[in-house]
Design a protein that fits this description.
The chain is an alpha+beta fold and about 140 residues long. The chain has a single domain, classed as ph1033 like domains (ph1033 like fold), CATH 3.10.590.10. Helix content is about 25%, strand content about 35%. The protein is built from five helices and six strands, in the order βαβαβββααβα. A six-stranded mixed β-sheet has the order 2-5-4-3-1-6. Strand 3 and strand 4 form a beta hairpin. The longest helix has 10 residues.
Length: about 140
């Protein structure tokens, strides 16, 4: 299993909307690096859901339920989407400030390249975020 961080501006698509929808397609990614990561996502991978611009915090966890396919919002075959399903809200959100201050998390790809809308997360980073957020997947 792999781990990822996906981010969305809450006014465009919020965690509350994700919970309401239960499952959605993750589309509109127009970064070449992020596209590579979308193509690497596999069914069962877990994703941290990050609110960008407003809040700047990780608020929930989703699971990939369908691997990459043609992004339905464009005819350009270069762009892809994946389907994700809400798993659970974090018990306590984890802010960007906390990520930058933590010895393990400050070197996360997302922290170093904050413009990425999709980024890989190591198992160690994922587990640390769960610990900080007081969240269990059990």
């Amino acid at each position: 299993m792999n781990y990822w961080l996906i981010k969305s501006e809450p006014f465009k698509y919020s965690w509350d909307e994700m919970l309401k929808d239960d499952t959605t397609y993750w589309d509109g990614v127009r970064s070449y690096a992020a596209r590579i990561f979308l193509n690497e996502m596999k069914v069962g991978d877990l994703c941290l859901f990050y609110h960008s611009n407003e809040g700047k915090e990780i608020v929930g966890i989703t699971k990939v339920v369908k691997g990459s396919y043609q992004d339905p919002t464009t005819d350009d075959e270069r762009w892809v989407a994946v389907d994700v399903k809400a798993v659970k809200s974090l018990e306590r959100s984890v802010s960007l400030k906390e990520l930058k201050a933590d010895a393990i998390l400050k070197d996360m790809r997302f922290v170093r390249q904050s413009r990425l809308s999709v980024a890989p997360v190591s198992k160690k980073e994922f587990d640390k975020i769960l610990k900080i957020s007081e969240t269990s997947l059990k």
